[in-house]
Sequence to fold (228 residues):
Amino acid sequence: MIARLIGSKEIAPQVRHFVFEAEDGPLKYVPGQFVSFVHVIDGKEITRAYSIASAPRAGNRFDLCLNRVEGGHLSPFLFDMQPGDTIQMTPPLGTFVLRDPPRDSILIATGTGIAPFRAFLEAHLHEASPSFTLLFGVRNELNMLFRSEFEAFGTLNPHFRFWPTLSRPDPSWNGLKGHVQNHLEEAIGGRRDIDFYLCGLKAMVDDVRGILKGMGFDRKQIRYEKYD
Fold:
């Protein structure tokens, strides 16, 4: 498949929101799945997987949310792309999707691990949906990706809770502080009939999985994707 860049914009330091269009669709995927971009750089074929950050929509457009990795193989090339440029991609793949039927869930993300959860919520959050709590850990307010969208979701849907957590907050920050792990027990509130979805750095995912297993949750209640 070929993906054409429609446009991109910076949404945090060294983070961009990209909109691509699959030229040879139709593009069919389930929220939470990923695409892989393939490009030859310095004579070597590079493949990198990126979670889709939007629910399926009319046409073949889809969003990505990417960090620019200094010294990285592919992200600098993607950040230098201009509208109209193209890149080869694979069809969407992956099993990090909501259970069918979905249950009340806690979504736990750090950094650009927020991408599949944006797709989850765009597709599944509505008046009659299960409840969702989003625990989102970043360093400071500048890194709080898609903040206005999630706050709007909470205004429109009282069964959605957005809990941003800052590890290096400014003194003026009055919200949750520390790491997402510090607030997990409060978010659970004694329930045992909920599912968990984790996406972010390996250290966070492994730590949260260990906490949940120690609390007695079954591994079938925990789905995750992690990256270094």
In short: Residues 202-214 form the longest helix (13 residues). The chain has a mean pLDDT of 95. The helical segments are 75-80, 115-124, 147-156, 184-188, 202-214.
